[in-house]
Each structure stands twice: as structure tokens, then as C-alpha cells.
Design brief:
By secondary structure, the chain is mainly alpha-helical. 69% of the residues lie in helices and 0% in strands. It contains 11 helices and no strands. The longest helix is centred in the middle third of the chain and has 27 residues.
Length: 215
């Protein structure tokens, strides 16, 4: 851990020209992401290693990120911003059928989580004490893919394609929780015996959609 004496002794970078701060911030995020992918473990990523890769002193990193958790969440958060653009928006542009859209989004969600297991672990499986304020739970459910999915569920209820005897928020949470459980189990226990992942995904989506169908 960097002490106050280290901070005082370390050379302080001069004030960045306009634009340089953003470029430095992005370089730090890229370095953290690269280290996370290379090591496959958040425990192997630390501020000193990131600083060395970017060519900065460790104290300089704290000009942009309050701590390691903040840095890692920002690096991983970019991936989940991409999820909206790469998975949800293309589905919504190519089908008006709520059930088909939900199935395709569910498949994309699981695929995305399994392709980025350590990113998923950081974003959705860490204890809340490690979650930076910028990624507080209430903000997660108010923005991004959860909000888009909730709007889709609302449309399905309004058109009679999904059951109307449940609160829309509760129904959206149930669908998400089922998919999250599948991804979390695969991320935490990748070698656990069981059916091939494609079969598990198909079965989970069938069970969830059957349960969401009108009574």
C-alpha cells in the first residue's frame, strides 16, 4: 500500500494539457484490462503493475482512480456499455416480437458473460463493500441493459405476451436472476460436471420463458 511518505517523495506529473488527461485515463484503463485478461484474475492486477505498463508512477494513477476497485470497475464497465450496443440494440432493431427479442437477449447475455468471465465476476459477483459509488446497485438497475429489458418486459405484459399477474419489475428481476445464476455458476465453477453449456442455456431460457408466459 502506498503511504503518505511515498506520495510526497514520488515525482508529481505536471499539469496535463487539454486532452492529455483523457488519453492518459484511457491508457490506464487499457493497461488494467490487458493485465486482467492476461492473468485471468483480478488478484493479479495491482496499481503498481498498471503504472509500470503505462509508464507512470503508482501515485499518478490515483489522480484518475480512487483505488484499485474503482479502476477495475471502470475497465470492466466499458464492456457492459458495449453489451447494450452489441446485443440489445441489434435485437430491438431486427424484431418486434417480444418473446423472440427476450430469447435472443438472454442468449446474448449468457454468451457475453461467459466470454468475459473475470469482467463478469467483478461487475456482478463482488461483495458490495468493493463496489465503487459510481457502480452502486441502484444505479445498475436504473440504467443500461436492465432498463432496456424492463421496457421490453413492460411491452410484453401490455400486449398479453407475458403474464400480467406479476409486477413488471419482479418479472424482469426473475428473468435476470435466472440467467445470472447460470453465468455465475459457470464462472465460479467452470469444471463442474453437467450437460454442455449450450444445453444448460437452452433449458434455462425455456424454463424462464415458460414461467413468464400468460397463465
Amino acid at each position: 500500500m502506498t503511504g503518505l511518505s511515498d506520495l510526497a517523495a514520488a515525482p508529481q506529473p505536471s499539469r496535463a494539457r487539454r486532452g492529455e488527461g483523457d488519453r492518459t485515463r484511457q491508457a490506464i484503463l487499457r493497461a488494467a484490462e490487458e493485465l486482467l485478461i492476461e492473468s485471468g484474475s483480478q488478484e493479479q492486477v495491482n496499481i503498481r503493475a498498471v503504472a509500470e505498463r503505462v509508464g507512470l508512477t503508482p501515485p499518478a494513477i490515483y489522480r484518475y482512480f480512487s483505488d484499485k476497485d474503482h479502476l477495475l470497475f471502470e475497465a470492466c464497465g466499458q464492456y457492459f456499455d458495449d453489451f447494450e450496443d452489441e446485443v440489445i440494440n441489434p435485437v430491438l432493431r431486427t424484431t418486434d416480437d417480444v418473446i423472440e427479442a427476450l430469447r435472443r437477449i438472454a442468449e446474448g447475455y449468457v454468451r457475453f458473460g461467459l466470454h468475459h468471465p473475470e469482467h463478469y465476476r467483478i461487475m456482478f459477483m463482488l461483495h458490495h463493500d468493493h463496489t465503487p459509488e459510481q457502480y452502486a446497485d441502484d444505479r445498475v438497475v436504473e440504467t443500461g441493459s436492465f432498463g432496456s429489458t424492463a421496457a421490453l418486459v413492460q411491452r410484453g405484459v401490455a400486449t398479453g405476451q407475458l403474464r400480467g399477474d406479476l409486477d413488471v419489475a419482479a418479472l424482469t428481476w426473475a428473468l435476470w436472476a435466472g440467467l445470472h445464476g447460470l453465468v455465475a455458476l459457470a464462472v465460479a465453477k467452470p469444471n463442474m460436471p453437467g450437460p454442455p453449456i449450450d444445453q444448460r442455456v437452452a433449458a434455462m431460457i425455456d424454463v424462464l420463458m415458460d414461467g413468464a408466459a400468460p397463465r
